[in-house]
Structure formats: C-alpha cells, structure tokens
Amino acid sequence: MKKATKLAALVLAMTMLVSVFAACSNSGSAGDSNSNAASQAAGQSSEAQAPAAGTELKFGTNAEFPPFEFVAANGVIGQYDGIDMAIAKQIAEENGKTAVIENMEFDSLLVALQNGQIDAVIAGMTVTDERKESVDFSTPYYTATQVMIVKEGSDITKASDIADKKICVIQGYTGQTCMDEMGYPYEAFKKGTEAVLELVNGKCDVVVIDSATAEKYVSDNQGLKIVEDPTAFEGEEYAIAVQKGNTELLNMINAAIEKKLADGTISSLAAQYAEAE
Length: 277
Ligand code: GLN
Fold this sequence. Notes:
The chain is an alpha/beta fold and 277 residues long. Helix content is 38%, strand content 21%.
C-alpha cells in the first residue's frame, strides 16, 4: 500500500473511532482505575499480541443477552445461539478456524480478554470511550439504544419520569452507566431475566436495557411494554473487542464484518433471531 493511501486509511479509521456514539446524551469517559491500569499494561507496548494461534478462535460472551447470545438446546455453536454466535462461527470458519465459546459474566469479559484467556469478546458489547482504554474494537456491526421496559399501565413516558421510580439495571451494562450519569438511583441485577422478573412481580417500576433485548423480554412476558426516549438515550454501537494492538486479528474480524454488513448477512441474522421464539 502506498504511504499516502495508508495515511488516508489511518485517518479514516481514527475518524470512525472518534465518531463512535456514547451511550447516553451526556456520556463522558470517566475511565475507571482498572481500565487505566490495563491500558498502561497493554497499550504502550510495541509488541502486538499474536493472532489466535492454531485452529481455534476463542470468543468470550455472556449468554444472557437474547437475541444476541443465549443458551439453547441446539445452538449454532454447541449450546450457544444468537446473532453474535452465528457471526462468531462464520468469522472463524471463513478463516479456517473453529469458534469456541467461553461463557462468563459480562463484567469479566474484558479482563479475560486482557489476560489472554479468550481471543475476542462478542457480547452485544457497546463501544465506549472507557472500554476503548483497555481493548480495541472492530468495525461496529449493530446499532442499538437504551430503552425502558415498564408495565403496560405505567405512567412513565420519558426518561425523566423514572427519576424517583424503582429502577432496575443489569450489572456492568451501559444501562447502568446511563443511570449513573443521570444520577438516578437503581438496583443492579446479574441477569436481564432477574431484572425483568422483578418488574413482572411489581418489585420495580422500570428496567433500563438495550433495545433488541428489551423487545425479546417484552414478547416473552405478558403485560410489559417499551418506552423509548431518544433525547436521553443516544445510539450505541456493538462491536467485537480484541486485545489492544492485536491488529492481525482485528483486521481479520473487520474484513469479515464489513463483508457481512455489505452483503446483508448481519441484517438477515438480526431479523431471523428477532422473530425466533
Ligand atoms: N450493550 C450493553 C453493554 O455493552 C449490554 C451488553 C450485554 O449485556 N451483552 O454494556
């Protein structure tokens, strides 16, 4: 590649990174101590991590996030199914590898990636400035937003209505970050299903969670509805994370994602899994 072309590509890539959406309208990049330490450890090194060796490509996920990842009797990768699982399988196979899934808590994913326990994270993970301090993200493959799940008779019509309601979020999700930034108190649950059960049982008034997952929960549970508020919750972009500096794997993933975005594979997977029971 010519130097000028390389530079142009770099500038474009950097512009794309800068223009990545934040989760909430006033989302900053507070950065916690963990990610700072991690980026110091991983970021400055000139030695990029070797790409996934051998024939396995190990993806970390948290299979509690339908329609992106969930446990099913006959998943696309063993017991794991969903949009992300199908994407992971295709990326691996198109590159002569076998996708292996490590299912863990959402909060543990980035640490596992930094430790080299997994090669990449595919978990409906939103690109945020804070996360970018510790890992590199691929080209985004899906746009979502935070929404509010409420009971059908609820008087909540906008985000500011929930200020003094009982709010449920899921630990480590961007929904929690949004509530922190808005300064609303909440209770955090380990799983989306637990938060939704709390709502169904009348123990909380609203669950703040990603849009496609919210739709899944609303269709699976009677008496719930979704309230959107685009003025409070901006678009979020999901991407695959790799270790900082692992450009070889990142390039491989980006090439696959860009092809799947262009040829409609990802949108048809999204449609297919949104409808599936
Ligand atoms: N998109 C949200 C986030 O990145 C939730 C992702 C998930 O639970 N898998 O925090």
